[in-house]
Amino acid sequence: MSCHNWSGAIRASGPTEPEYRVGLKQLPESVRPRERLLVGGSESLSDAELLAIIMRTGTPSANVLEIAHQLLRDFDGLEGVSRAAIPELCQIKGLGQAKAIEIKAALELGMRAVRSDPLQRPAIRSPEDVHALVGTRMSMLESEQLRVLLLNTKNRVIADQKVADGTVNQTTVRIGEIFRDAVRHQATGVILVHNHPSGDPTPSRDDVELTRDARRAGKLLQIDVLDHVVIGRGSGRTYKSLRELGLAFEPELRAV
């Protein structure tokens, strides 16, 4: 009998031993996330280690770092964790509602910190940039949602605001809501973005009429409506730009 089979026979013949898990407190200080952050700073930690600090504790069967690694694996990294709903996160064993809420809050703070730094704000120069910024997140929504990207004079994103949920058209969306935060943030341009849960990003008549109404209001406020991008589903170019299609936009207006 080979050595491999022999060891397997011994394990099978004896009583099952409880699996021993090493908690973080039993690990050397040099590999504990909190201690590593104190010594090397937060940038020296992996995504899993940072998540472990937020979650603080594990379970009898898995320490908090193991749970953090599983979380990243199951949701394909931080971007997936950020997009996931709280009930989805709670499917991970050892991750209850309170910890899921703390993770979501921490990730949102990080994104807001990036957006608040003028040098880190993404620049929007094309519909592709719009899709790269919000396309993945919006393509997963089960109902329509209208968002407005607020831009400064250099077309950098000042803020990303949700304006409406549900059917998006000129009768259900108040034009004032589109520009309320734009005025407050002193934005010089806005881009409308909404999704079609059906998967087909082809603009509807309502989409065109809403865009026309918004452009008229924007001219009065001296805030340019630079584009309206409709997000669909699937891989590839799953979005449509009303400006590129020549719908509700005149060629003399400032381009994105």
Explained architecture:
By secondary structure, the chain is an alpha+beta fold. It folds into two domains: 13-116, DNA polymerase, domain 1, CATH 1.10.150; 127-245, Cytidine Deaminase, domain 2. The protein has eleven helices and five strands; from the N terminus they run H-H-H-H-H-H-H-H-E-E-H-E-H-E-E-H. It has helices at 3-13, 33-40, 47-55, 64-74, 78-83, 86-89, 97-116, 127-139, 175-184, 205-221, 242-245; strands spanning 145-151, 157-165, 189-195, 224-231, 239-241. A five-stranded mixed beta sheet has the order 2-1-3-4-5, sandwiched between helices. Helix 3 packs across helix 4 and helix 9 packs across helix 10. The longest helix is centred in the middle third of the chain and has 20 residues, at 97-116. Mean pLDDT is 83; it is low at 1-20.
- Overall number of domains: 2
Shape: elongated
CATH homologous superfamily caption of the largest domain: Cytidine Deaminase, domain 2
Order of helices and strands: HHHHHHHHEEHEHEEH
**How much strand?**
5-15%
Helix vs. strand class? alpha+beta
| Strand arrangement, major sheet | 2-1-3-4-5
Distinct helical segment count: 11
Helix % is 40-55%
Task: Give a short account of the largest sheet.
Answer: 5 strands, mixed
What is the name of the CATH topology of the largest domain?
Cytidine Deaminase, domain 2
Mean of the pLDDT scores?
83
- Shape-level CATH architecture of the largest domain: 3-Layer(aba) Sandwich
Topology, number of strands:
5
Between the first and last Cα atoms, what is the distance in angstroms?
A: 73 Å
Main CATH class of the largest domain: Alpha Beta
Rounded to the nearest angstrom, the radius of gyration is 25 Å
